[in-house]
Every structure is written in C-alpha cells, then in structure tokens.
Design brief:
single chain; 13 helices; about 65% helix; mainly alpha
C-alpha cells in the first residue's frame, strides 16, 4: 500500500553528514533568528511586520525570476546572492504562518523531505529506475496516488452538495442547442487549474499543454499545430483591425498558447527563448542609442533601421559568427525587431 501524502517511509540511515551539513544548519539557524527578530512585535522592523503572505507575492515571483537570470548568466556570486533572497521568502512565509499557529519552517522542511523520500522509491525503497524516463513515470504515478488519497479524504469530510435546481440535464434558461456536459468534477482540469494558478503565464501554458497532450488531447502531427498558428494569427489580425480590444486580447492569448504547443513539439523552452530575445534586443538597442548619442527623437525609421542592422552585424562579428545575409532595405523590406513607439 503506498504511503499517505502525509506520511513518508523512513529513509535508510544516512552517513555522517560531516562539517558541511553542520555549517549549513548553523547558517540556517542564524537566518531563522534574524527573521524572528525582524518580525518581533516590539523590536522588529516596521516594514517586515506589515508584510503578509499576499503582500509578499510579488517578491516571491521577482526573486524566482532573478535566480533564473543569474543561472542564465553563469555568475556564481550573483546566483548565491539570489538564492539567499529566495530562501528569505520561504523563511518569511513560514514565520508569518507560525505566528498564527498554522505551520512553521520545521513543518515546511519536514514536508519536502517526506515528499522527496516518498517520490523516490528507487532511492529510498525497493523500486527500480534505470533512467530519468523511468524516474518520471514513478513520480507521476505516485503523484496520482497521492491526489486520489487527498480526494478521498476531502470527499469523506466535505458536506453534502445541495441538489441541483431544475428537473433534468437542461436547467431553466439553458441553451437547448449547447452541448451537454456532465456536472461532475474533471480530475485533470481541476488539478491543472490549481497547479498553474500561481505560475507565470508562459510556464502555466506549457504545463497545461504537456499534461493535456499526455492525456491524449493532441494533434497527429506538427503540421496541425502550424495550421492552428496560421488560423489564430488570422483571427488576431481581424480582431485588432476591428478595434475590439477585449476580443483582440483573447485572440492574442490563443495565438501565444498555440505557439507554446509549437515549442512543446520542438522541445523548446519558450521562457528561455523570450529571455534570449530580450537580451539580444537590449544589446542591439544599446548600440543604436550609443551611435545616436542617446537621442532617438526625431530620427526617421530608415535611419533607425540602418543603425539596427549595423548593431546586429557588429555583434555577429564580435561573436565570430558568419556574416548574415544582408537585410533588404526600403518599403518592401521584411519587418525587423526594431519598432519605434507611436508618436
């Protein structure tokens, strides 16, 4: 019988953790003591005392993104600093919860330790996993068992749902031509809704796309995905032309979600791709500004395009890449990434 989500098998006794673990424990105890002082009602920091779980949400997201940025740049000192900032957020949230007796940092640490042991039976138990694909299969199967146990527990303690109004599948006011959907729960969509609720939109879209595809909601070939991209792009163009901002916003989302599916089919990381584009754009834009003395005002699009192409060529030459095919100029030229803001 699999362990309950709230219980974990005892791992084999570890060896002597050594002085490194002792140092980490001492450093963590020091951090906990610092945060306790910051949240002390009499002698703490007024700003820290004002914070709540909700008010700290932007900082959690910001620090997570800064960790990712430090990893991309390969700067160890920066990465260590940003990991510390992210750890502070974990400790702060645990401290806030402990003040009302809900949970504390020890519960957070024990919980993740128990989860790791539970979801690695090939390390802490008798299961076998010869490669990472097998590990993922174990992980997903255990997650499904845990979710089923949670659902059973919640169903046993939840109050009975009130009877639905109406006398049949079609309730008063319902469209008789609309497809009938069962009123019961949708396990996968419910789980995904909870999982992506706090994610950045790109990451959430990729998670939804992967899980839906794994469940069988998938195109037969990537040609179908490209056809959907063209369809959504056309709908976005029509929506923008109509001037209906709400509709255009929806169609933009549909196009971006379809492009996420392209990324999944190509085993690409959309976050990495967009982050790279941001860096390249800023590098080129910095060079354009430098060439124009920092003043872009009043410049023609032709002049800006010329400096943009020169910046791209300079970057390629510095990186040792082969020269790019010259970009066409004039009114028939293909659009470039440089697009000046409206006047």
């Amino acid at each position: 019988m699999p362990p309950s989500p709230n219980e974990a098998p005892s791992p084999p006794p570890p060896g002597d953790p050594g002085p490194s673990a002792d140092g980490a424990a001492a450093a963590l105890a020091e951090l906990l003591a610092v945060v306790d002082r910051l949240r002390d009602p009499e002698h703490g920091c007024p700003w820290d005392l004002e914070q709540t779980h909700r008010s700290l949400i932007p900082y959690v997201l910001e620090e997570a993104h800064e960790v990712a940025d430090a990893i991309r740049h390969g700067n160890d000192a920066h990465l260590a600093e940003e990991l510390g900032d992210l750890l502070l957020q974990v400790v702060l949230h645990a401290r806030i919860a402990s003040e009302s007796g809900r949970f504390d940092f020890a519960a957070v640490a024990r919980g993740i330790s128990a989860k790791l042991v539970r979801r690695h039976p090939h390390v802490f138990g008798t299961a076998e996993a010869r490669d990472s694909a097998a590990v993922r299969l174990h992980w997903e199967a255990i997650k499904l068992r845990e979710q089923a146990e949670r659902d059973q527990s919640q169903a046993a303690t939840a109050p009975a749902a009130p009877p639905a109004s109406g006398t049949g599948p079609l309730q008063a006011g319902a469209d008789p031509e609309a497809p009938a959907f069962p009123a019961g729960p949708s396990p996968l969509s419910d789980r995904l809704a909870g999982k992506v609720r706090g994610m950045p939109a790109l990451a959430g879209a990729m998670t939804i796309s992967r899980k839906a595809a794994a469940a069988g909601f998938e195109w037969d070939a990537i040609d179908g995905v490209w056809a959907k991209v063209e369809e959504e792009l056309g709908e976005l163009q029509e929506a923008v032309a109509s001037g209906d901002r709400g509709h255009a916003q929806e169609e933009l989302g549909d196009l971006l979600f379809t492009l996420i599916n392209v990324a999944r089919w190509g085993d690409l990381d959309p976050e990495e791709g967009l982050a790279g584009t941001n860096r390249r754009f800023l590098d080129r834009f910095r060079r354009v500004e430098a060439a124009l003395g920092g003043d872009l005002g009043g410049r023609s699009i032709g002049e800006l395009e010329s400096h943009w192409r020169a910046a791209k060529a300079a970057i390629r030459a510095e990186s040792g890449a082969a020269p790019a095919t010259p970009e066409p100029a004039g009114p028939d030229a293909a659009p470039t990434p440089l697009s000046p803001p409206p006047a």
